[in-house]
Specification:
binds coenzyme A, alpha/beta, about 280 residues, 2-enoyl-CoA Hydratase, Chain A, domain 1
């Protein structure tokens, strides 16, 4: 059973939880209500075992046109307490909650992505876009700077020349360019292709051990802040944790099945539904 929200649509099918920005008439701009709904929806899906992979997308022709310039910025201009409250909720779901999400997350970029929407996009583990989707760091065009964690995240994700080019010019670019500069994994030509790719990728991820996926993400994200020795020690601890949580499945199923010649790990995962 999925809950319903005013500005976010949640659907689960075949292990894939789809969370859609749902203000198509406003290009899915992120209003205070939308931030509250997104935070709650992600929290609910986190504990819903039916969703093993989570896809973030938008209803209509936008992924998200970024922060709602009217409701988030202008209308809260003279309400500092309310603004801080919304700002903290927004920052929390778009960065911490998404980056530390225990399940794989995929951005299915179906259209416009501007400004603040770069944060949840970059926080997702993977991203596939429509070739014609339009991206832009438009803040400079209305006299602002990419605030919150936008700039910080661009530093991690893009080469300095690309980041500064788009920060300073505010020029938009399409899904092909987003692929070239490493903002998304790849792009496809049609909406049907986008959903075919997302479903294939989601299905593939659903076939892996969920604990291995969760700890692989933790190891990647946390190692970025460590030196080699720390990362090495941390990885040893993570493998021990994995072995305990998986009850040794990677030895008893993964390696034993390989030894028996049942599958080749280099070519894909084993069928977790079948006993060895
Ligand atoms: N905040 C608030 N409202 C937004 C919005 C945003 N970020 N982006 C779009 N909207 C609203 C428009 O105000 C309009 O509402 P209205 O019908 O009540 O007037 C509606 O969405 C449709 O937008 P419109 O501009 O008519 O659509 P378009 O197809 O001509 O252009 C965009 C689409 C996305 C290019 C354009 O809306 C835009 O530039 N939006 C701002 C993007 C931005 O700078 N975001 C950064 C935020 S940090």
């Amino acid at each position: 059973m999925t809950k319903s929200y005013k500005t976010v649509l949640v659907e689960i099918k075949d292990g894939i939880g789809k969370v859609s920005f749902n203000r198509p008439e406003k290009k899915n701009a992120m209003s205070p209500q939308l931030h509250r709904d997104r935070a709650a929806a992600l929290q609910d899906l986190k504990y819903n075992d039916e969703a093993r992979v989570v896809v973030l997308t938008g209803v209509g022709e936008s992924w998200s046109a970024g922060m709602d310039l009217k409701e988030y910025f202008y209308e809260l201009r003279d309400k500092p307490k309310e603004w801080e409250q919304v700002r903290l909720i927004a920052n929390s779901w778009m960065t911490d909650a998404l980056q530390n999400y225990p399940k794989p997350t995929i951005a299915a970029v179906n259209g416009w992505v501007f400004g603040g929407a770069f944060v949840p996009l970059i926080s997702c583990d993977l991203a596939i876009a429509l070739a014609d989707a339009k991206f832009g760091l438009s803040e400079i065009n209305f006299g602002l700077i990419p605030g919150g964690t936008v700039t910080r995240m661009l530093i991690d994700m893009l080469r300095p020349r690309d980041a500064l080019y788009y920060i300073l010019t505010g020029r938009s670019f399409d899904g092909r360019k987003a692929t070239e500069i490493g903002l998304v994994n790849y792009c496809v030509d049609t909406l049907d292709d986008l959903w075919a790719e997302i479903n294939d990728l989601g299905k593939e991820l659903c076939g892996k051990h969920p604990v291995a996926l969760q700890l692989a993400k933790e190891l990647y994200r946390n190692s970025r802040r460590m030196d080699y020795q720390q990362a090495y020690d941390y990885s040893i601890a993570k493998v021990a944790q994995l072995t305990e949580l998986e009850k040794g499945e990677w030895y008893d199923q993964g390696i034993v099945r390989f030894k028996k010649g049942e599958f080749r790990p280099g070519m894909g995962h084993y069928d977790r539904g079948k006993n060895v």
